């Protein structure tokens, strides 16, 4: 049986339902390796402070390493229906291995700063893993764009055809979103990478623990500057949740676009069998389940983010048991974001663009109307007048059942006499794309440059 880390003040037995309600070991055991690392650094600090002898520090460190090795090698090692949390589990196993000297490890430490330290260590590594998954998704977008570098497609506003763009330009729009996500994760990681160990329960520690040395040993960039704040701060969790929520917003938007483009009505994208399912009733169906699940799981991540904010909003200083709710929310956020990033990269690497269908769509719907207005402006017509004239020519084309470039020249001139034969070239697809040659535009030259820049940025 695992003994409690507290109890001297108590004489009665805890209610069984409360014990179950209070336990966190079933989920916080994920922190075991992070907690062991932090405990080894704490043992070294206790040795340096003269609390532990050389033999005691060595025995504790070797025992902790053995616990970590066993946990990694055998999942059943972490099956324990008595442990209150991962911290009491580690201490109980340590005492079993090294005897009563193991009970010295908690000197100068509270579960409050212990939990905060292990949690930051664990989440710091997850930050790094998710940054790499975002990078891989960006790489998949660049690969998709490179496979169809010359392809064109309709760009949309209000889900109505607006202006033609290169497909690669569309891919790079999402690349930029995920680039911001990587920046946010790195920035939030910096604030996560602060050591709370040595803060005790709330007031600090009476022992001469070298906190800076512990920080260096654990790879923290700084130590916390206020013990009350250190043990009660969960901003780093909420910042991670916010960053994960924005990642899910971007994944959900990408999923929505691809779901629409994969419909028979659009027919722009064909999803691989690897990431689609069929219907139990309708044999012809190919459903974009992977994308729909990503879109749906965005709401799950948002919910966990709101849950964290709600837990923290009214808590007095310092630690409160409410904060135990942070673990399951963050664990779920991490798992969900990682799964969605991996699956979306797989979707992109197995998707096929129907270039004929996207090019045909670009040639319909008067998508060169803005180019016609710009042509008139280049002829000296004020833009508001040019816009109105272009609109009247669109109406004339609708009445005749033709596209703008098919409208007879005399009909155009009847609306605006400045029009000359060069309008026919100005309304071509190549000219429409080519004029968008400013930085960030969809001109082929600019998009090629942007693709190269994107590839280079992935090396950072």
Describe the model.
It is a single chain. The chain has 460 residues and is mainly α. The chain is 61% helix and 5% strand. The protein has helices at 16-22, 25-28, 32-48, 54-73, 86-98, 111-147, 167-192, 211-218, 227-232, 235-261, 289-312, 325-349, 355-362, 369-378, 383-400, 409-415, 423-426, 429-434, 444-457; strands at 152-157, 160-166, 194-195, 222-223, 269-270, 352-353. The strands form three sheets. It has a two-stranded antiparallel sheet. Strand 1 and strand 2 form a beta hairpin.
Topology (elements, then pairings):
Elements: H1 16-22, H2 25-28, H3 32-48, H4 54-73, H5 86-98, H6 111-147, E1 152-157, E2 160-166, H7 167-192, E3 194-195, H8 211-218, E4 222-223, H9 227-232, H10 235-261, E5 269-270, H11 289-312, H12 325-349, E6 352-353, H13 355-362, H14 369-378, H15 383-400, H16 409-415, H17 423-426, H18 429-434, H19 444-457
Parallel strand pairs: 3-4
Antiparallel strand pairs: 1-2, 5-6
